[in-house]
Amino acid sequence: MTVTIRDVAKRAGVSIATVSRVLNQSKPVSEELRNRILQAVEETGYLPNAVARSMIRKQTGLIGVIIPEISNPYFSGLVQGIETVAKQNQYYLMLAVSEKEPGRERELLRIYQARQMDGIILASARLDPELRQALEKLAVPYVVIGQRLTGLNAPCAVLDNRRAAFEAVSHLIRMGHREIGMVSGPMWDLASGKERYQGFRDALEEAGLPFRTEWVTEREGFHLHDGYEGMKVILGAPERPTAVFCACDRMAVGALRRLEERGIPVPEEMALVGFDDEELASIVKPRLTTVRHSPFDMGLKAAGLLMEILKGLPLTDGTCALVKHDLVIRESSSLSLSPRP
């Protein structure tokens, strides 16, 4: 037998109009009444007609989310944060993976708009001119994660990668290191690549330390093998630094493996610092000093901004929510050195 809205109203002890107000979010009701009606919906198994609801509300109740990769645990935390806010506001997610391809991202934006998503959340590593043009033409509210879009005034949720990297390298300098290298991510990745590299340069410049090109290597990704190969390059220089900053924890773990193969102890002969505070950072030996930030909070803030837009709340142009970060000091950089003459 098909369950109707009348059955829900009867079980909850309210009118059909009250059930409709809750399901369509057309008028506010008390939290107790809302919970009672939602419980009745669950108990009866009532499924509202999505087409009818979208016609009444002029919304589909769907949010399109685009992430660059699925294997990175960062993005699972990010999506969990978005889902938390979406669920609280009775929205559902449609998730797609762009594989870091701008063309794929542009295609997904078109598809999401054609499918009448109420809003879109985009996590993009590189914003090429074509993708920026696609965003300019987008007729759907959107929020960008990880990037400040100069000139577009788009709402965004960001981490201050440059400042966080500066603090990580400054920690090495305070520990007495004067010869510091970096395994960098690709510069086309504006947040995790370019901004973290800029923070590294800022710290060296402020301390009056030399930038040695042979101690800095740009990799094509943020994986274990990128850190491993990056450390091979650095160790191949005529002299080696006493510390290396890696653009992410997985790269740092790959670098640590190479140092172990070469018999170079950490931190006695080489200090290491990572970024992201992934779970593996506290499992490896020695445990990694790293920058901690929460992808869950990033998702919360991005989805929160989108909800404000969908509710018609005013946002200033270029509103960006900043996710906090902390430096977590562990054994991989804990040994103080006396500056070399």
TrEMBL record:
Cross-referenced Gene3D superfamilies: 3.40.50.2300, lambda repressor-like DNA-binding domains
Molecular function, one GO term: transcription cis-regulatory region binding
PROSITE patterns named in the record: HTH_LACI_1, HTH_LACI_2
SUPFAM superfamilies for the chain: lambda repressor-like DNA-binding domains, Periplasmic binding protein-like I
Keywords for the protein's UniProt record, in alphabetical order: DNA-binding, Transcription, Transcription regulation
The keyword DNA-binding is assigned to this record: yes
Domain HTH lacI-type: 3-57
Superkingdom of this protein's organism: Bacteria
PANTHER family named among the record's database cross-references: HTH-TYPE TRANSCRIPTIONAL REGULATOR GALS, LACI-RELATED TRANSCRIPTIONAL REPRESSOR
Annotated protein name in UniProt: LacI family transcriptional regulator
